[in-house]
Amino acid sequence: MLIIPSIEIYGGKCVRLRSSDFNDRVEYPRSPVEAAKEFAASGFSFLHIVDLEGAQYGQVKNWSTIEALLAVENLRLEVGGGVRSKEEIEKLLEMGVRRAVLGSIAVTLPSLVKRWIREIGSRRICVAVDVRKGKIVHSGWLEEIEQSPTMFMMELKNGGASSFEYTDVAREGSNDGPNLDLYKEIRSFFEDVELIASGGVTSIQHLETLAATGVSGVIVGRPLHEGAILPSDLKSFVT
User: Fold this and answer.
1) C-alpha span between 59 and 204 (Å, rounded)
2) Can you list the pairs that 91-95 forms with residues at least 24 positions away whose Cβ atoms lie under 8 Å?
3) What CATH number does the domain located at 2-238 have?
4) Has residue 235 got a pLDDT over 90?
5) Tens-digit pLDDT profile for residues 100-134
6) pLDDT tens sequence across 30-67
7) DSSP letter assigned to residue 147
8) How far apart are CA 55 and CA 65, in angstroms?
9) N or C: which terminus of the chain carries fewer CB neighbours within 10 A?
10) What are the residue ranges spanned by the domains of the chain?
11) Phi, psi of 31 (to 5 degrees)
């Protein structure tokens, strides 16, 4: 199971949101590049980058920070947050980003995203599925749709998507642990896709129980930035 550290960026700084309010942010003392270098030195090879400012304004904003992160040796990046055009996807890939993560645009214009997947390739695009109380939410978790997450994923899978990042929004930033039954259920429906879990991880035990659900990987952010989980604790996962 792949462990993917997450770095969230706003105004070029490494941050996290206390809630879905973009103005309610915690700023970490180290820069995104400093965090990335520490993750690389600890043996991680893949990072999840979120341009929170981009997510707020609907277009990628932190280009210079992304470029600086790409210069860190021995790391591959996936980037999401405000990526809503083919031009942005192509620019990210040309810069050296491994793949673009598409959320809101995949929910609001799935036919367009399916076309991009066919044109650009399923390995270069990952679909983000954010779910709260059984419903897909988007646009900063402020909007929701009636289509079930399973049907949404099936539609995108039939359109060529092969990688999904599934976030249980209710568990994001909580101490309740990941929703194991949810990931078991999703994996039972989608046995042949890359399924990345996100939300609720605060301990090594959570990672061990998630591994048993069959997910392909787990995104870990706040616990690594705030010391609840040390990179050295994850040696068995990253070696």
Assistant:
1) 35
2) 91/60, 92/60, 92/66, 93/120, 93/124, 95/66, 95/67, 95/70
3) 3.20.20.70
4) no
5) 999 999 999 999 999 999 999 999 999 999 998 88
6) 999 999 999 999 999 999 999 999 998 999 999 999 99
7) S
8) 15
9) C
10) 2-238
11) -75, 165
Give the number of residues written for the chain: 239
> What does pTM read for this prediction?
0.94
Residue 51 main-chain phi, psi, to 5 deg:
-85, 90
Q: State the burial class of residue 130 (Cβ atoms within 10 Å of its Cβ: 0-12, 13-18, 19+).
A: buried
What would the two tokens of residue 60 be? 């990628």
H or E element in which residue 15 lies: strand 13-17
CB 156 within 8 A of CB 183: no
| Cα gap 11→61, rounded to integer Å | 8
Amino acid letter for position 115: R
Torsion of CA 53, 67, 30, 210, to 10 degrees: 80
Distance, CA of 42 to CA of 200 (rounded, Å):
22
